[in-house]
Write a structure and sequence with these properties.
Chain lengths: 360, 270
């Protein structure tokens, strides 16, 4: 059993990063995630593990610091909230293009624009469909508890290095700000210079010894034939990520109806299931944990057995498109959500199920 | 007269100049008369002379020198437009024993990357910045830069830069010299042998500063762009001497070796 604590989701991200053996964090303050950098600055991990923590002049700078750090074969990360993550889109595209591993945390708030500082899930499209320019995908993890905020930091780094691809934790102000019991991960030592040379010496810019050719981290390729091959390689890499797809099913064995929800919405759906089942409505929950790769096949198999599916999201209906594609529109799929920083109540969700699916 | 074979001339004792091995044999893509090739050579020579080829990481910009990595045989990061100082910040902080430098043009450093360069200098990041100022966007085809002189015609200021329309040319070197994080700030050029030697001396000093952990060293090289300026290389040098040097005066703007404490105290007193 690891160390048990009562902690805020944002604080756990900071603690988990230190324990995961992260080499660097680069960030810029923005509500509702500033506790991540604040916690790190109080913890002073540079004295403990040697981890670098730096407040950058902007999100643009912090994501480019991540680009520089990741290019060294180091375990580096940043965190922000929606408007800040929008500013990072250029850098994220470059990181994906140069195939660098890193971790990005988005504690989502409502938009568009400056929007609201209240929780939202409106950055689903931006996270899973690209967001920046060019054909690329991020590995997207959607924690629904403070415990998973801890777990997804280590998991995110592991997947990022496995695929040499940026990983993004898509959380929101609810999970970032709420306190729950968490079992912290054990400390993992940071890699030594020798270990980095051994593991990543074939691509990282760590100083060119006389016996090898240059390592150049770049996303640039002006020869179309080579660039197309590079794109092809990326497409194949993204497809191969299916082997790491993660999802959770709750009370689906006897279910006639299905909620599909991720992150904090999935927690509210669990209460809605209780309320619905008390009224005799057999409803279960399918929760994608990785939003990319998406559990398309698993949802297709389960979903097509249902009388109807309600996707519950704190946005104007984004993941619902992927749910419809997964079940190939063979069963009715509807969306219910609140936005602007409003969190739906469990009863609202049950009412929407009755209205839009059962009675519909 | 006896026959002299070329091999009799090419002997160790006759060697007066040799291309540094830190420069690759790739044919440079730069236009005739461009200053980049000379500055690349100087950076490569300094790296060789200091014996730091295995410890040096370069950060190339977006602009004509985006492919600097094809010519200087070290490890490189190719940064997004203007972001090289942020990229270099992380590389140096995560690997403080390495030598890290950025190589940036005027569009990259003074326009889109103004925030990144100012804050890297303000934090006193222990890096070297090589800033090529030819007063124009070369790669995209001769558009106006923040450093374009008043009255100077470009593709986006075809009737010449006008202050009321485009604002004033920016003197980045003077600006970063005011920041306490910089230790060595100088403006040089490479249009003649004496100037080339001075610039090399400045680059060497900058890398030595980094070795000693002194903070940011910033070297502007006032440069030509004969393609962008639409003149031949000889005319470009003449034009630079006549028009650029008066506005961008050469020489050291700051050298912490000479007076470090006083500068800082002055700044902190306000």
């Amino acid at each position: 059993m690891g160390e048990l604590r009562l902690m805020k989701g944002n604080e756990v991200i900071a603690e988990a990063a230190i324990r995961a053996g992260a080499d660097g964090y680069f960030g810029y303050p923005i509500t509702p995630q500033s506790e991540i950098m604040e916690t790190l600055m109080v913890r002073k991990p540079w004295e403990e593990t040697g981890m670098v923590v730096l407040q950058a002049e902007s999100e643009v700078a912090s994501i480019n610091m991540v680009y520089g750090g990741a290019g060294c074969g180091k375990k580096v990360m940043t965190s922000s909230s929606s408007p800040g993550v929008s500013l990072m889109m250029e850098g994220i595209s470059y990181i994906a293009g140069a195939e660098l591993p890193c971790l990005i945390v988005n504690i989502v708030r409502g938009g568009p624009g400056l929007g609201t500082i209240q929780p939202s899930q409106a950055d689903y499209f931006q996270s899973v469909k690209g967001g920046g320019h060019g054909d690329y995908r991020l590995i997207v993890l959607a924690p629904n508890s403070v415990q998973e905020m801890n777990d997804h930091v280590g998991l995110g780094f592991d997947l990022a290095f496995k695929y040499r691809n940026p990983a993004l934790i898509l959380s929101d102000g609810v999970i970032g700000q709420m306190m729950e019991k968490v079992e912290l991960s054990d400390y993992k030592p940071r890699l030594t210079e020798e270990e980095i040379i051994e593991k990543y010496g074939d691509w990282a810019h760590i100083g060119k010894p006389a016996n090898r050719s240059q390592n150049v981290v770049t996303s640039l390729e002006l020869q179309s034939e080579i660039m197309e091959k590079r794109n092809q390689h990326l497409i194949e890499k993204y497809a191969s990520m299916q082997e790491d797809v993660m999802y959770e099913e709750i009370m689906t064995e006897d279910a006639e109806y299905l909620f599909v929800a991720f992150g904090s919405s999935s927690r509210i759906c669990q209460k809605a299931i209780e309320l619905a089942r008390a009224e005799g409505i057999k409803v279960g929950l399918f929760r994608p944990i990785t939003l990319f790769p998406f559990a398309t096949n698993q949802l297709k198999e389960l979903g097509q057995k249902m009388k109807g599916i309600l996707t519950v999201e704190m946005n104007a209906g984004q993941m619902v498109e992927d749910v419809k594609l997964a079940v190939e529109c063979k069963v009715p799929v509807e969306w219910f959500g609140r936005f602007g920083g409003i969190i739906p109540s469990p009863q609202e969700i049950v009412d929407a199920l009755k209205h839009k699916i059962i009675g519909g | 007269m006896a026959d002299i074979d070329i091999k009799d001339i090419i002997r160790e004792e006759n060697l007066v100049y040799k291309k540094t091995d830190v420069l690759t044999d790739n044919v440079m893509h730069y236009c005739p008369g461009c200053s980049h090739g000379v500055v690349h050579k100087l950076v490569a020579e300094v790296i060789e002379e200091m014996g730091i080829q295995e410890q040096t990481i370069g950060v190339s910009p977006v602009g004509c020198s985006v492919f600097a990595y094809n010519y200087i045989d070290i490890d490189w990061s190719e940064a997004a437009h203007g972001r090289a100082p942020a990229v270099a910040t992380a590389i140096k902080r995560l690997m403080p024993e390495k030598f890290v430098f950025t190589y940036q043009g005027d569009g990259d450093l003074a326009s889109i990357g103004a925030a990144e360069i100012l804050h890297a200098c303000n934090r006193g990041e222990n890096i070297v910045v090589i800033f090529i100022n030819n007063a124009i966007y070369g790669m995209t085809g001769g558009q106006m830069a923040p450093t374009t002189l008043v009255g100077m015609p470009t593709a986006t200021s075809p009737y010449g830069r006008q202050i009321d329309l485009h604002g004033y040319p920016m003197k980045m070197t003077e600006i970063v010299a005011t920041l306490p994080g910089t230790c060595f700030v100088t403006r040089q050029s490479v249009e003649k042998a004496a100037a080339v030697r001075k610039t090399k001396k400045a680059i060497r000093k900058a890398f030595e500063n980094q070795k000693a952990g002194k903070g940011t060293s910033f070297i502007e090289v006032v440069s030509t762009c004969s393609s962008g300026w639409k003149v031949n290389p000889v005319k470009a040098n003449e034009w630079m001497t006549e028009h650029m040097f008066p506005f961008y005066p050469l020489g050291d703007k700051k050298d912490c070796e000479k007076d470090p404490a006083e500068d800082y105290e002055k700044y902190m007193k306000g």
